[in-house]
Amino acid sequence: MTKQNMFGVVLWSDTDAQKAVIWCEDQGELAFYTPGDTSIHDAPALDAGDLIRFDLSVQENMRKASNPQLLMQSHSPNLPETLRNPPKPQRATNPAREAISRKVIELAHYFEPKRGPMAVTG
Hints:
The protein is α+β, with helices and mostly antiparallel strands and 122 residues long. The chain is 16% helix and 33% strand.
């Protein structure tokens, strides 16, 4: 079992059970943390939004975190909410397209019959 050093942000935690779900810097699958005998020190209390460094290993097709080290408390406190309710993307503006649309000439009025008093010839 190879361990890899990883940075991540805690998405969810249960402080009583000392469990956490971590979003990893490599954008791969989430990592799960539960304290165990393999920790080299007492684990810090982890809260959602904390930036941590940890050892990552894969056990039974699940990414597991061990030896978490708190780097910055409340680094991204709104991250869990943002992931649940992402902001709506703003309509991208394209300056070139906008410039072209300002130069578009509506030809319809050139082809419509002119309306006005009819000339009477007699």
